[in-house]
Write a structure and sequence with these properties.
By secondary structure, the chain is mainly alpha-helical. Helix content is about 50%, strand content about 10%. It has a two-stranded antiparallel ribbon. Bound molecules: zinc ion (ZN). The site of zinc ion has 7 residues, from loops.
């Protein structure tokens, strides 16, 4: 059985919408993963924290390589 919050009646769970008003049952949000965007931002910061020193290191190695060649 489904419950219509608009009409306050119970109707068949086989019905897609309330037979009285036609409003479909609102889907409940899953409790897990409430803020996925904050986790994505944290992952971006992790990539910046890893990527910037690596980039500096690569540039430094390229300069050393060019100096040794030249
Ligand atoms: Zn209804």
């Amino acid at each position: 059985m489904k419950y219509c919050r608009n009409c306050h009646i119970l109707y068949s769970s086989a019905a897609a919408a309330c037979p009285k008003c036609g409003i479909t049952e609102p889907k409940a949000d899953p409790p897990a993963g409430q803020k996925p965007e904050s986790r994505a931002v944290r992952r971006d910061w992790l990539w910046i924290l890893i990527g910037v020193p690596v980039l500096i290191g690569v540039v430094y190695l390229l300069i050393l390589l060019l100096k040794s060649l030249g």
